[in-house]
Amino acid sequence: MAPKYTLTYFNGRGRGEIARLIFAAAGVNYVEKRLEFSEWPAIKQSTPWKSLPILEVDGVVLGQSLALTRFLAREFGLQGKTNVEQALVESVVEASADLYGEYYPIMMEEDEKKKAEITEKYLNETAPAVLKNLEEFLSSNKNGDSFFVGQSLTWADLSMLYAVDQPVSMKVEMSGFPKIMAHRKRIENLPKIAEYLKKRPNTPF
Amino acid sequence: MAPKYTLTYFNGRGRAEIARLIFAVAGVDYVDKRVESEWPAIKQSLPWKSLPILEVDGVVLGQSLALTRFLAREFGLQGKTNVEQALVESVVEASADLYGEYYPIMMEEDEKKKAEITEKYVKETAPAVLKNLEEFLSSNKNGDSFFVGQSLTWADLSMLYAVDQPVSMKVEMSGFPKIMAHRKRIENLPKIAEYLKKRPNTPF
Fold first, then answer.
1. pTM for the complete prediction?
2. What are the b/e assignments for B164-198, b being 16+ CB within 10 Å?
3. Any chain B CB within 8 A of the CB of A60?
4. Least CB-CB distance to B132: which of A49, A58, A62?
5. Residue B148: how many CB atoms within 10 A of its CB?
6. Rounded to whole angstroms, how far apart are CA atoms A194 and A151?
7. Torsional class of B189: left (φ above 0), alpha (ψ -120 to 50), beta (otherwise)
8. Tens digit of pLDDT for each residue in B181-190?
9. Model ipTM?
């Protein structure tokens, strides 16, 4: 039987990656379409929000990365157990989005001087401040030695796996965030995640 | 009985307004705390060092969209199926670009820079986002109903707040007739009309 879901994005992690981690953790098959930048203009106008990623399911095209990613979290029971837990999960996702929300403009900036300025701000101010809050939040659940929220994996843990890639790759000083770094290792070593990471293509973003 | 929910924000609409619209539509009482000079004193005690926060059942929820979505679910305004919820949330996410770009403009002190980013918002960003939203709305009952499905969801309330921004910035709105008509319909829902009448006038 053909997979029920088709995820379309560029050939990179970016705004498609948390969705892919969710599929991997859930052990669910899907059609993964990776477009080259040259193919994008031809299909852009046909997408609901003129952007990628999109997720096709049951004849519906879903757009907006966090909306479709959250949809998948709910499909596979990774959203959190109670309404309050779901809100706690989503607060982690929303806070962690500042780690890559600030990162993308840096990657796209062509003016070298401006790029250096905003890189400095990210490295020395934004990322450390966000990571500090996330470290505190994590530490408040089982001393930070478990999951971000509750007693089992949620998409907050997967969102953090992706989000923390950014400060790590930018060489932000991570020694002040030991619980986050240990959490990262635990999630990377979950069997289905480890298998996914082994097979994941190496891409520039 | 004391209200179950306490919403704390600054004295303005901003990142708490969609939550207040949800409470209004649901007809649910809550404590609407507005802080001013006391902000530095409470900041460090908050989970994300930011407002708004929502206190419920002894838990403090932060991050505006997370707590707002929580309220939408509490009161059945999130959409009926999982797909509908995703469509609702895609509208909310897209409309957030209307005020996400607006806030930095309000905060910019350098007059020259402010003029540049205002121009970009008014001429490029806002019209592009509104065009997509107009198309999306038009695909549901020709745009003469709700944003998603057959009944009110927080997508409609989110849009009510979000479109305030381009309107106040005098973005040309004549190309978005369905959105403007939708706005009027939502503003005229009895519980919303009553809320808007009583809402304090604030700078933001």
1. 0.96
2. bbbeebebebeebebbeebbeebeebeebeebeee
3. yes
4. A49
5. 25
6. 20
7. beta
8. 999 999 999 9
9. 0.95
